[in-house]
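Data deposition worksheet. Section B asks for the primary sequence of the deposited chain exactly as it was used as input, without tags or linkers unless they were present during the calculation. Section C holds the resulting structure in C-alpha coordinate form. Section D is free text for depositor observations; keep each observation to a single sentence. Incomplete worksheets are returned to the depositor.
Section A, Depositor: J.P.
Section B:
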Amino acid sequence: MLRLREYAPQEVELSPEDLRAVVALTRGGSDAAVLMAVTPTGTGRHVIVPGPFVGRLRLPSGLVLDIRSRFDLADLSTLLANYVGAPRLLRDDLVPAGEGTTLVDLIAAAFVDALDQVVGRGLPKGYVERTFTRPPFAGRPDVATHLRRHAGRADRLVTRAHRITQDIPVNQVLARAHALLTSAPLRHARTRSRLTALTPVLAAIHQPLDVERAIRLARPRLPVRCRDAFDLAVLVVRGTSLLPEGVERNGAAVLFPMPKVWEAFVENSVAAQAPSGHHVRRQVPVPITESPDSTTGYADVVEYDSEGRPVAVYDAKYKHLGRPSTDDLFQVFTYCRRLRCARAVLVLPGRGETSTVSMGEVTVESRGLRVLADRPAQLTVIDVGSATALHLPEVS
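Section C:
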Protein backbone atom coordinates (compact mmCIF):
# COMPACT_ATOMS: atom_id res chain seq x y z
CA MET A 1 0.00 0.00 0.00
CA LEU A 2 1.31 3.44 -0.95
CA ARG A 3 0.40 6.16 1.54
CA LEU A 4 0.02 9.67 0.14
CA ARG A 5 -1.26 12.99 1.44
CA GLU A 6 -3.27 15.71 -0.27
CA TYR A 7 -1.15 17.92 -2.53
CA ALA A 8 2.11 16.36 -1.25
CA PRO A 9 4.30 15.05 -4.13
CA GLN A 10 5.78 11.58 -3.74
CA GLU A 11 7.95 9.42 -5.96
CA VAL A 12 6.67 5.93 -6.75
CA GLU A 13 7.52 3.04 -9.04
CA LEU A 14 4.71 2.22 -11.47
CA SER A 15 4.18 -0.60 -13.94
CA PRO A 16 3.03 0.38 -17.46
CA GLU A 17 -0.60 -0.60 -16.72
CA ASP A 18 -0.56 1.29 -13.42
CA LEU A 19 0.90 4.33 -15.18
CA ARG A 20 -1.97 4.34 -17.68
CA ALA A 21 -4.47 4.17 -14.82
CA VAL A 22 -2.69 6.94 -12.91
CA VAL A 23 -2.59 9.22 -15.96
CA ALA A 24 -6.34 8.70 -16.37
CA LEU A 25 -6.80 9.96 -12.81
CA THR A 26 -5.25 13.32 -13.78
CA ARG A 27 -8.07 14.10 -16.23
CA GLY A 28 -11.12 16.18 -15.55
CA GLY A 29 -9.65 19.56 -14.60
CA SER A 30 -8.26 20.83 -11.30
CA ASP A 31 -11.56 20.36 -9.47
CA ALA A 32 -12.27 16.84 -10.71
CA ALA A 33 -8.82 15.28 -11.07
CA VAL A 34 -7.88 12.77 -8.40
CA LEU A 35 -4.18 13.41 -9.11
CA MET A 36 -2.85 16.85 -10.00
CA ALA A 37 0.29 15.71 -11.86
CA VAL A 38 2.37 12.69 -12.86
CA THR A 39 6.00 13.48 -13.71
CA PRO A 40 8.58 10.86 -14.83
CA THR A 41 11.85 10.88 -12.88
CA GLY A 42 13.53 7.76 -14.25
CA THR A 43 12.86 4.33 -15.66
CA GLY A 44 9.54 3.23 -14.26
CA ARG A 45 9.56 5.91 -11.56
CA HIS A 46 7.25 8.90 -11.37
CA VAL A 47 6.38 11.71 -8.97
CA ILE A 48 2.66 11.88 -8.40
CA VAL A 49 0.85 14.79 -6.75
CA PRO A 50 -2.54 13.94 -5.18
CA GLY A 51 -5.33 16.40 -5.83
CA PRO A 52 -8.28 17.49 -3.69
CA PHE A 53 -9.43 13.94 -3.03
CA VAL A 54 -8.87 11.75 -0.02
CA GLY A 55 -9.45 8.03 0.00
CA ARG A 56 -8.22 4.77 -1.42
CA LEU A 57 -7.83 3.68 -5.01
CA ARG A 58 -6.76 0.29 -6.31
CA LEU A 59 -4.53 0.24 -9.39
CA PRO A 60 -4.63 -2.65 -11.94
CA SER A 61 -1.55 -4.34 -10.42
CA GLY A 62 -3.24 -4.43 -7.01
CA LEU A 63 -1.26 -1.49 -5.61
CA VAL A 64 -3.50 0.57 -3.34
CA LEU A 65 -3.09 4.34 -3.21
CA ASP A 66 -4.08 5.47 0.27
CA ILE A 67 -4.52 9.26 -0.02
CA ARG A 68 -4.93 10.92 3.38
CA SER A 69 -6.41 14.30 4.23
CA ARG A 70 -4.13 17.06 5.43
CA PHE A 71 -6.82 17.87 8.03
CA ASP A 72 -6.76 16.00 11.33
CA LEU A 73 -10.52 15.94 11.89
CA ALA A 74 -11.74 14.71 15.26
CA ASP A 75 -15.02 13.31 13.94
CA LEU A 76 -15.59 13.23 10.21
CA SER A 77 -19.05 11.69 10.55
CA THR A 78 -20.27 14.85 12.33
CA LEU A 79 -19.48 16.89 9.23
CA LEU A 80 -21.01 14.35 6.87
CA ALA A 81 -24.20 14.15 8.92
CA ASN A 82 -24.98 17.76 7.97
CA TYR A 83 -24.57 17.11 4.25
CA VAL A 84 -27.72 15.93 2.49
CA GLY A 85 -26.45 15.99 -1.09
CA ALA A 86 -25.50 12.89 -3.03
CA PRO A 87 -21.87 11.75 -3.01
CA ARG A 88 -19.81 13.02 -5.94
CA LEU A 89 -18.79 9.47 -6.85
CA LEU A 90 -19.27 5.94 -5.60
CA ARG A 91 -16.75 3.39 -6.82
CA ASP A 92 -16.36 -0.17 -5.59
CA ASP A 93 -12.75 -1.19 -5.04
CA LEU A 94 -11.32 -4.38 -3.63
CA VAL A 95 -9.12 -2.53 -1.17
CA PRO A 96 -8.14 -3.58 2.35
CA ALA A 97 -10.28 -2.12 5.09
CA GLY A 98 -7.36 -1.61 7.45
CA GLU A 99 -7.43 -1.67 11.23
CA GLY A 100 -9.21 0.45 13.79
CA THR A 101 -12.61 2.09 13.85
CA THR A 102 -14.13 2.48 10.41
CA LEU A 103 -16.26 5.34 9.17
CA VAL A 104 -19.13 2.90 8.76
CA ASP A 105 -18.89 2.19 12.50
CA LEU A 106 -18.85 5.90 13.28
CA ILE A 107 -21.89 6.57 11.12
CA ALA A 108 -23.68 3.53 12.55
CA ALA A 109 -22.95 4.62 16.12
CA ALA A 110 -24.14 8.18 15.42
CA PHE A 111 -27.26 6.85 13.68
CA VAL A 112 -28.20 4.45 16.47
CA ASP A 113 -27.76 7.22 19.06
CA ALA A 114 -30.03 9.56 17.11
CA LEU A 115 -32.56 6.81 16.35
CA ASP A 116 -32.65 5.83 20.03
CA GLN A 117 -33.70 9.38 20.89
CA VAL A 118 -36.44 9.35 18.24
CA VAL A 119 -37.76 5.97 19.39
CA GLY A 120 -37.64 7.08 23.01
CA ARG A 121 -40.09 9.87 22.22
CA GLY A 122 -42.10 7.75 19.80
CA LEU A 123 -41.80 7.41 16.05
CA PRO A 124 -43.58 10.25 14.24
CA LYS A 125 -47.04 9.54 12.84
CA GLY A 126 -48.98 10.88 9.93
CA TYR A 127 -52.15 10.41 7.92
CA VAL A 128 -52.26 8.31 4.78
CA GLU A 129 -55.18 7.78 2.43
CA ARG A 130 -56.31 4.16 2.12
CA THR A 131 -58.78 2.38 -0.11
CA PHE A 132 -61.41 0.06 1.37
CA THR A 133 -62.96 -2.63 -0.85
CA ARG A 134 -64.42 -4.77 1.94
CA PRO A 135 -66.54 -3.98 5.01
CA PRO A 136 -66.38 -2.16 7.27
CA PHE A 137 -66.27 0.70 4.76
CA ALA A 138 -64.85 3.98 5.99
CA GLY A 139 -64.65 7.47 4.62
CA ARG A 140 -66.23 8.59 1.36
CA PRO A 141 -67.06 6.70 -1.87
CA ASP A 142 -64.18 6.43 -4.32
CA VAL A 143 -66.07 6.79 -7.59
CA ALA A 144 -63.05 6.54 -9.90
CA THR A 145 -61.82 3.29 -8.37
CA HIS A 146 -65.37 1.93 -8.23
CA LEU A 147 -65.82 2.50 -11.96
CA ARG A 148 -62.36 1.22 -12.85
CA ARG A 149 -62.52 -2.00 -10.80
CA HIS A 150 -66.20 -2.88 -10.76
CA ALA A 151 -67.67 -0.94 -13.70
CA GLY A 152 -69.95 0.86 -11.27
CA ARG A 153 -71.77 -2.25 -10.06
CA ALA A 154 -74.38 -1.37 -7.42
CA ASP A 155 -73.57 -4.44 -5.32
CA ARG A 156 -69.93 -3.39 -4.89
CA LEU A 157 -68.57 -0.47 -2.91
CA VAL A 158 -65.18 1.26 -2.77
CA THR A 159 -64.35 4.02 -0.30
CA ARG A 160 -61.30 6.05 0.72
CA ALA A 161 -60.42 7.37 4.17
CA HIS A 162 -57.49 8.87 6.06
CA ARG A 163 -55.85 6.69 8.68
CA ILE A 164 -53.10 7.63 11.13
CA THR A 165 -50.01 5.44 10.90
CA GLN A 166 -46.29 5.27 11.58
CA ASP A 167 -45.66 3.91 8.07
CA ILE A 168 -44.83 7.34 6.63
CA PRO A 169 -41.88 8.49 4.45
CA VAL A 170 -39.64 9.73 7.29
CA ASN A 171 -39.87 6.39 9.09
CA GLN A 172 -39.45 4.50 5.83
CA VAL A 173 -36.12 6.26 5.19
CA LEU A 174 -35.01 5.49 8.76
CA ALA A 175 -36.02 1.84 8.29
CA ARG A 176 -34.07 1.59 5.05
CA ALA A 177 -30.92 3.03 6.62
CA HIS A 178 -31.35 0.73 9.62
CA ALA A 179 -31.57 -2.32 7.34
CA LEU A 180 -28.43 -1.30 5.42
CA LEU A 181 -26.41 -0.69 8.57
CA THR A 182 -27.62 -3.92 10.15
CA SER A 183 -26.26 -5.86 7.16
CA ALA A 184 -22.99 -3.90 7.02
CA PRO A 185 -19.75 -5.51 8.34
CA LEU A 186 -19.52 -3.49 11.56
CA ARG A 187 -16.56 -4.12 13.83
CA HIS A 188 -18.15 -3.02 17.08
CA ALA A 189 -20.44 -5.68 18.55
CA ARG A 190 -22.17 -3.15 20.81
CA THR A 191 -23.26 -1.02 17.85
CA ARG A 192 -24.60 -4.09 16.05
CA SER A 193 -26.49 -5.25 19.15
CA ARG A 194 -28.05 -1.80 19.57
CA LEU A 195 -29.14 -1.81 15.92
CA THR A 196 -30.60 -5.29 16.33
CA ALA A 197 -32.51 -4.19 19.43
CA LEU A 198 -34.27 -1.52 17.34
CA THR A 199 -35.44 -4.00 14.70
CA PRO A 200 -38.84 -4.74 16.35
CA VAL A 201 -39.63 -1.03 16.52
CA LEU A 202 -39.26 -0.72 12.72
CA ALA A 203 -40.78 -4.10 11.84
CA ALA A 204 -44.11 -2.61 10.73
CA ILE A 205 -42.46 0.08 8.57
CA HIS A 206 -42.21 -0.71 4.85
CA GLN A 207 -38.94 0.06 3.12
CA PRO A 208 -39.62 2.45 0.20
CA LEU A 209 -39.17 1.25 -3.38
CA ASP A 210 -38.17 4.80 -4.39
CA VAL A 211 -35.92 6.11 -1.62
CA GLU A 212 -35.33 9.51 -3.25
CA ARG A 213 -39.08 10.10 -3.48
CA ALA A 214 -39.48 9.16 0.19
CA ILE A 215 -36.73 11.64 1.10
CA ARG A 216 -38.42 14.41 -0.90
CA LEU A 217 -41.79 13.70 0.72
CA ALA A 218 -40.37 13.48 4.24
CA ARG A 219 -38.18 16.57 4.37
CA PRO A 220 -40.86 19.33 4.25
CA ARG A 221 -42.73 17.71 7.18
CA LEU A 222 -39.69 16.54 9.11
CA PRO A 223 -40.12 16.88 12.90
CA VAL A 224 -37.26 18.72 14.61
CA ARG A 225 -36.51 15.75 16.86
CA CYS A 226 -35.92 13.53 13.78
CA ARG A 227 -33.46 15.76 11.93
CA ASP A 228 -30.21 14.21 13.16
CA ALA A 229 -31.34 10.63 12.59
CA PHE A 230 -32.89 11.52 9.22
CA ASP A 231 -29.78 13.31 7.91
CA LEU A 232 -27.62 10.33 8.86
CA ALA A 233 -30.14 8.00 7.24
CA VAL A 234 -30.02 10.03 4.01
CA LEU A 235 -26.22 9.77 4.01
CA VAL A 236 -26.49 5.98 4.30
CA VAL A 237 -29.27 5.31 1.78
CA ARG A 238 -27.80 7.57 -0.88
CA GLY A 239 -24.59 5.56 -0.94
CA THR A 240 -25.43 1.90 -0.53
CA SER A 241 -22.13 0.75 -2.02
CA LEU A 242 -20.32 2.55 0.77
CA LEU A 243 -21.65 -0.24 2.99
CA PRO A 244 -19.83 -3.27 1.55
CA GLU A 245 -21.22 -6.74 2.08
CA GLY A 246 -19.34 -10.00 1.74
CA VAL A 247 -15.84 -11.12 2.55
CA GLU A 248 -14.19 -10.14 -0.72
CA ARG A 249 -15.62 -6.63 -0.93
CA ASN A 250 -13.57 -5.02 1.81
CA GLY A 251 -14.02 -1.45 0.75
CA ALA A 252 -15.45 1.18 -1.55
CA ALA A 253 -14.29 4.62 -2.57
CA VAL A 254 -16.77 7.44 -2.13
CA LEU A 255 -16.29 11.05 -3.15
CA PHE A 256 -17.88 13.88 -1.20
CA PRO A 257 -17.56 17.55 -2.21
CA MET A 258 -15.99 18.58 1.07
CA PRO A 259 -16.34 22.36 0.59
CA LYS A 260 -20.09 21.73 0.19
CA VAL A 261 -20.03 19.44 3.24
CA TRP A 262 -18.27 22.21 5.16
CA GLU A 263 -20.82 24.80 4.00
CA ALA A 264 -23.66 22.61 5.29
CA PHE A 265 -21.86 22.14 8.62
CA VAL A 266 -21.24 25.90 8.93
CA GLU A 267 -24.89 26.64 8.09
CA ASN A 268 -26.01 24.22 10.79
CA SER A 269 -23.62 25.71 13.34
CA VAL A 270 -24.64 29.30 12.57
CA ALA A 271 -28.35 28.41 12.74
CA ALA A 272 -27.86 26.67 16.09
CA GLN A 273 -26.11 29.72 17.58
CA ALA A 274 -28.30 32.43 16.02
CA PRO A 275 -30.37 34.58 18.41
CA SER A 276 -34.06 33.88 18.77
CA GLY A 277 -35.98 35.25 15.81
CA HIS A 278 -32.98 35.18 13.47
CA HIS A 279 -32.75 32.79 10.52
CA VAL A 280 -30.05 31.82 8.05
CA ARG A 281 -29.96 31.14 4.31
CA ARG A 282 -27.34 29.33 2.29
CA GLN A 283 -25.91 30.31 -1.12
CA VAL A 284 -27.52 33.75 -1.17
CA PRO A 285 -27.13 35.53 -4.55
CA VAL A 286 -25.33 38.87 -4.22
CA PRO A 287 -25.16 41.30 -7.21
CA ILE A 288 -21.54 42.39 -7.59
CA THR A 289 -21.78 44.72 -10.58
CA GLU A 290 -24.58 46.82 -12.02
CA SER A 291 -26.63 46.12 -15.15
CA PRO A 292 -26.48 45.57 -18.08
CA ASP A 293 -23.39 43.33 -17.60
CA SER A 294 -24.26 42.28 -14.07
CA THR A 295 -22.15 39.75 -12.18
CA THR A 296 -23.59 37.76 -9.30
CA GLY A 297 -21.71 36.18 -6.43
CA TYR A 298 -23.08 33.75 -3.86
CA ALA A 299 -22.57 34.19 -0.13
CA ASP A 300 -22.19 30.82 1.60
CA VAL A 301 -24.40 31.67 4.60
CA VAL A 302 -26.24 34.89 5.49
CA GLU A 303 -27.86 35.57 8.86
CA TYR A 304 -31.05 37.68 8.92
CA ASP A 305 -32.74 39.36 11.86
CA SER A 306 -36.41 39.02 12.78
CA GLU A 307 -37.31 41.75 10.26
CA GLY A 308 -35.49 40.04 7.40
CA ARG A 309 -32.47 42.36 7.31
CA PRO A 310 -29.00 40.84 6.73
CA VAL A 311 -26.85 41.15 9.87
CA ALA A 312 -23.85 38.94 9.06
CA VAL A 313 -22.19 37.14 6.16
CA TYR A 314 -20.48 33.79 6.84
CA ASP A 315 -17.96 32.45 4.34
CA ALA A 316 -17.12 28.76 4.78
CA LYS A 317 -13.46 28.16 3.97
CA TYR A 318 -12.38 24.53 3.94
CA LYS A 319 -8.69 25.23 4.38
CA HIS A 320 -6.12 25.63 7.12
CA LEU A 321 -6.67 28.45 9.57
CA GLY A 322 -4.19 31.28 9.25
CA ARG A 323 -3.93 34.93 8.32
CA PRO A 324 -6.85 35.75 5.97
CA SER A 325 -5.84 36.18 2.36
CA THR A 326 -6.51 39.42 0.52
CA ASP A 327 -8.95 37.63 -1.78
CA ASP A 328 -10.95 36.26 1.16
CA LEU A 329 -11.10 39.67 2.84
CA PHE A 330 -12.22 41.52 -0.27
CA GLN A 331 -14.78 38.82 -1.08
CA VAL A 332 -16.65 39.08 2.24
CA PHE A 333 -16.15 42.87 2.33
CA THR A 334 -17.90 43.13 -1.06
CA TYR A 335 -20.74 40.88 0.09
CA CYS A 336 -21.23 43.01 3.22
CA ARG A 337 -21.25 46.27 1.29
CA ARG A 338 -23.76 44.97 -1.25
CA LEU A 339 -26.00 43.43 1.44
CA ARG A 340 -25.59 46.51 3.67
CA CYS A 341 -24.40 44.72 6.76
CA ALA A 342 -21.29 45.42 8.83
CA ARG A 343 -20.17 41.95 10.00
CA ALA A 344 -18.46 39.11 8.16
CA VAL A 345 -17.10 35.82 9.49
CA LEU A 346 -14.59 33.54 7.78
CA VAL A 347 -15.33 30.08 9.20
CA LEU A 348 -12.56 27.47 8.98
CA PRO A 349 -11.78 24.09 10.59
CA GLY A 350 -10.03 24.78 13.89
CA ARG A 351 -10.05 24.41 17.65
CA GLY A 352 -11.96 27.53 18.70
CA GLU A 353 -9.48 30.19 17.58
CA THR A 354 -10.74 33.68 16.69
CA SER A 355 -9.20 36.88 15.33
CA THR A 356 -10.71 40.11 14.02
CA VAL A 357 -9.71 42.79 11.51
CA SER A 358 -11.51 45.98 10.46
CA MET A 359 -12.09 47.11 6.87
CA GLY A 360 -13.67 50.52 7.24
CA GLU A 361 -17.17 50.01 8.60
CA VAL A 362 -16.98 46.22 8.09
CA THR A 363 -15.59 43.93 10.79
CA VAL A 364 -14.18 40.61 9.54
CA GLU A 365 -13.72 37.77 12.03
CA SER A 366 -11.75 34.59 11.37
CA ARG A 367 -13.24 31.74 13.40
CA GLY A 368 -11.99 28.18 13.75
CA LEU A 369 -14.86 25.79 14.49
CA ARG A 370 -13.95 23.01 16.89
CA VAL A 371 -13.64 20.08 14.50
CA LEU A 372 -9.93 19.29 14.63
CA ALA A 373 -8.38 16.69 16.91
CA ASP A 374 -6.77 17.98 20.09
CA ARG A 375 -3.17 17.70 19.01
CA PRO A 376 -0.79 20.11 17.28
CA ALA A 377 -1.33 20.67 13.60
CA GLN A 378 0.77 22.58 11.09
CA LEU A 379 -1.05 25.74 10.07
CA THR A 380 -0.42 26.79 6.50
CA VAL A 381 -2.63 28.75 4.15
CA ILE A 382 -3.33 26.55 1.13
CA ASP A 383 -6.20 26.79 -1.34
CA VAL A 384 -8.30 23.66 -1.33
CA GLY A 385 -10.01 21.95 -4.21
CA SER A 386 -13.69 21.42 -4.77
CA ALA A 387 -14.15 17.83 -3.59
CA THR A 388 -12.79 15.21 -1.27
CA ALA A 389 -13.05 11.45 -1.47
CA LEU A 390 -13.53 9.29 1.58
CA HIS A 391 -12.82 5.62 1.78
CA LEU A 392 -15.56 4.59 4.11
CA PRO A 393 -13.99 1.58 5.85
CA GLU A 394 -11.24 3.71 7.38
CA VAL A 395 -11.09 7.21 8.75
CA SER A 396 -8.38 9.35 7.25
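Section D:
The first strand starts at residue 2 and ends at 5.
Confidence is low (pLDDT under 50) at residues 89-101, 240-253, 376-396.
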